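INFO worker-7 received task bundle
INFO bundle size: 2
INFO processing item 0
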Amino acid sequence: MYFPYEADAPHPNGFADAGSMDAVLDRMAKDPAVRLRVLRRLLGDAACRQLGVCAVPAGFLLSVVIPVYNERQWIRAIVERVQAVPIPKEIIIVDDCSSDGTREILSELEGDNLHVHYQQVNEGKGAALRAGFKLATGDVVLVQDADLEYDPAEYPRLIQPILDDRADVVFGSRFIGDNHRVLYFWHYVANKMLTTLSNMFTNLNLTDMETCYKVFRREVLASIELKSNRFGFEPEITAKVARRRTPAWRIYEVPISYSGRTYEEGKKIGLRDAFNALFCVVRYWLAD
């Protein structure tokens, strides 16, 4: 949920003359400012923060960068879900040389706030994200995978620490309190091992370094040179954000849900990527 900052100003019509609960609910449905005032009064500020009920400043723009490779089965659904999030945004999709018909679907979906960049050679997620970050013009940049494992409805919760000026970077963690699909034990073990090793080098206390949902103030990405082409992007960006000292970037984690998919459903990350991530954890902490 998002609401404009002017929501805190007194509403000209108030609630006293509403006459009935139906009238109040009708006005809440039509006016984000009224919704925010009512929810804050009913739930309190603390509960609103937990639910991701936040005020978005006038002129704010969120850039959603989506790397895509052979996602014909899911691409329409993920675009619809991202479009449905009521936050001012631009959607930047980078197609990493798909060969299953995804490109043809993307050519149909392009529109005013949906831009597609077509890679000429398949290079990997990291390379696709680098291309997308260069095209982003929003105040905040969010990484979204092209499958349905992560829920775009959680964007308000993810961007809230940045809008509250408490964070410069936000990681969405699958392991600190929200629901998730039960799947592969060894994936869980590998994820925990990589996160722990990353924390040892970065001196952070993250619970989910490998999460897709990473959110940045745009100036954070502008100050970092990224090199990884594949899934090494995750440990690389974590190491380079942690290395910042003057001033240090403020990093937050927020709980997210997770609906993982199986290899039969199109999951792509494998053992090779786990070893590459292990190498990148060490490499990008010791040397740029």
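INFO item 0 finished
INFO processing item 1
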Amino acid sequence: MNRRNVGAVRAIRLPGAATLAIVRGMNAWEPIAAAGATDAGAAFDLRRAVPDGVAPPTPLVFASPHSGRIYPADMMAASALDDLAIRRSEDAFVDSLIAAAPALGVATIGARFARAYIDVNRDALELDPAMFADALPDTVRARTPRVAAGLGAIARVVSEGQEIYARKLTYAEAAARIDGVHRPYHAALADLLAEARAAHGFAILVDWHSMPAAAARSAGRRGGCDMVLGDRFGAACDDGLTALVERGLERHGYRVARNAPYAGGYTTELYGRPARRVHALQIEINRGLYLEEATLQPTRGLQKLKGHLETLIGELVAADWSALR
């Protein structure tokens, strides 16, 4: 990987907490290095269920594209936001929620760089020309709904609509983020799926996210939901996968909605090709279940939810997927 844009890592101070070193994508409240982590480069944290080169034991691959916590110094110098505000778009602790997966037979990949720096769940060409001081290539996709919302590959705003940058960026800055983070992340994810498909005849990608509690309250029936399953209205995966996850979550008492307000993002759309025996499902988790959104501090609900998801992962590992072959 080209590391020229990695830069320095800034320390973040949260209210009532010690200074937090945002290093290598780990949770600020967890050890910086975790057993079993593979040093796969600065762009992502990849954890295999078996040693590299050994066939994966299951067809499952988990991804967490928005849990990265690295904010390079050059980005922070250009930012108009304080340390806490810029973290509003993070899927905080989602990588921790699925940390048991490799021990159960599931490879995981998580972004290390923050979503606000480069969003790997966007097409790399989704860029807003108004954010840049110079001209962008003709190949840029400037008119997508995500760009219009300020949430392209280089986001203009954080989740509460606050403008991130105090100055215009250059295309060279965007290209460095794409080349150094976005492309390596997707190359590694594509390799994991290819390995699973080669070993099992098919692959299953589960893309893990979190959603603001306000969005969860407006989703589903009966006044809100706890989880949203996005399968692009059946286009990204076999319904059996969505139904199995839905039943597993409902057994723990969670309210589950499908495809509204989140039907699946770029990753689900890109990789979800059931006709090619690759199935992709996006899971959005209500942050109110495990997090104080105002401070980004975890609540006691984190461990409860983590235990329930570990049970769900075990059910996915043990499932009969013969219908997907």
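INFO item 1 finished
INFO post-check item 1: The chain has nine helices and eleven strands.
INFO post-check item 1: The chain has one domain: 11-123+169-319.
INFO worker-7 idle
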